[in-house]
Amino acid sequence: MTFQAGRSFVHHLHPAVKLAWLLWGTIAVFVFHSAVLPLAAAAGALGVLWLSGVTPWRIPGLRVWATLGLAILVAQVVIVREGDPLVGPVTDAGLVAGLRAMGRLMAVILMSALFVVTTEPFSLACGLIRIGLPYRWGFALVTALRLAPVFRLEANHICRAQVVRGVAYDTAGPRRWWLVLRHLCLPLLVSALRTAHCLSLSMEGRAFGLHPHRTYMRPVIAGWRDVGAAAALAVTVTFAIWYRFTAAGVS
């Protein structure tokens, strides 16, 4: 799952604002015990993904997470016996607990996917640096995000090369893990160390870290969209805190 260029409203938001929304959404679905909020957050993230020009079911691993969410729902329905019975052994409390757990999982996955596919790593690092993050840490963040797909592609190439050479990755049992560790992980580790060494030499040759501050060819500047999104976030957080304490006082 990598960044996908686009011209939607979410694509043009400041990365720090989108990160703040992601953090708040993740906290909110776990703080509030309602089953409606996680499901609404997941549906909202799914809709925003669609409006941003991203096909949700083409996101890598989304089907696996959806299957896991359904398994969690079934497990909660079967395990929880409290509440009034609905159909057979299914109770209303078990159904609510299952929907809440599945909704939390899917909400976090879909909101994270929305953030990743609409936020360029370079813009994210520049935006965080402008609000106080040391640029060395920003460079480390960009490097990690950009090298992850490179290493995934490298692992795929190594796996195909080892299969051509007769490595039986389809072997069942503990032997398969030994083959993966020896013939896949070891070459991938060597490739990663070689890449890191070349990167460090390139950074040293360019005197990276010599100056306390640096300039950027394409600065990330907040606009009216970001001010509006930040104001909406502040209003949402304030209302949520008020509702939380009000509900606690009433109960």
Give a quick summary of the entry.
The chain is mainly α and 251 residues long. Helices cover 71% and strands 2% of the residues. The protein has two domains: 1-119, no CATH class; 135-205, no CATH class.
Mean pLDDT: 82
Q: How many domain units?
A: 2
Q: Give the strand order, joined by hyphens, for the main sheet.
A: 1-2
Q: Give the quaternary arrangement of the chains.
A: single chain
- Share of helix, binned: over 70%
- Principal-axis shape: flat
Structural class determined from secondary elements: mainly alpha
The percent range for strand residues is under 5%
Question: Could you describe the largest sheet, including whether it forms a barrel?
Answer: 2 strands, antiparallel
- Count of DSSP H/I helices: 8
Radius of gyration over all CA atoms, rounded? 23 Å
Low-confidence stretches: none
Strand tally is 2
First CA to last CA: what distance?
43 Å
Give short descriptive properties of this protein.
251 residues; mainly alpha; 2 domains; two-stranded antiparallel ribbon; 8 helices; flat
Q: Would you write up a description of this structure?
A:
By secondary structure, the chain is mostly helical. The chain folds into two domains: 1-119, no CATH class; 135-205, no CATH class. The chain contains eight helices and two strands. A two-stranded antiparallel sheet has the order 1-2. Strand 1 and strand 2 form a beta hairpin. Helix 1 (15-31) runs parallel beside helix 8 and helix 6 packs across helix 7. The chain starts with 14 loop residues before the first helix and ends with a helix.
